[in-house]
Each structure stands twice: as structure tokens, then as C-alpha cells.
Design brief:
1 helix, about 90 residues, about 10% helix, mainly beta
């Protein structure tokens, strides 16, 4: 998407598209987000995230959230053997 006029999208190739729904899945500097919120570029808040999938810890079959100094760890089961995890680091 390169622009919006009268609620329609104007694509980079010049095509005009009208729709009832828009999904802004175009990244951190989303053109859809900028159009909807008009709040300027994203601001770095000092966090980085690392994500992965690994074996589930039998001690925490339902997952967990752990907080530490400059760290938040979120773990959620995918199935009986695997978990999805995100570590947010400051």
C-alpha cells in the first residue's frame, strides 16, 4: 500500500482497492498502522524479544511466566512435548 484516498487503498502499481477489512501485516513501520493511527514512527522502548520452540518442562505442563531483573519469560505449551517461548530483555 502506498496511499489511501477516500477510504480506498492505492497500491504501488496504481491499482485502487476498496474493502471492508484491512489487515496491517506489513511490519514495524506499517503503512496501514500509520494511516489508521497517524501517531508518528515507532519509538524504541529499550526491549528486545527472542522467541523459540523447545521441549516442554514437565514441571510446568501448562506453561509459565517468569519475571526477573530486565527479563520477562513467557512459555506456552503447543502440545504434550513442545512449548513456545518468548524472552523479553531490557
Amino acid at each position: 500500500m502506498t496511499s489511501v484516498d477516500d477510504g480506498a487503498l492505492r497500491l504501488a502499481n496504481g491499482t485502487r482497492v476498496e474493502s471492508d477489512l484491512r489487515v496491517g501485516a506489513d511490519g514495524l513501520r506499517s503503512a496501514v498502522r500509520a494511516w489508521m493511527l497517524d501517531d508518528g514512527p515507532p519509538t524504541y522502548c529499550g526491549y528486545a524479544a527472542v522467541r523459540g520452540i523447545g521441549p516442554i518442562d514437565p514441571a510446568y505442563p501448562d506453561g509459565c511466566i517468569a519475571y526477573g531483573r530486565g527479563l520477562i519469560l513467557f512459555v506456552s505449551p503447543i502440545d504434550d512435548a513442545r512449548a513456545y517461548w518468548v524472552a523479553s530483555l531490557r
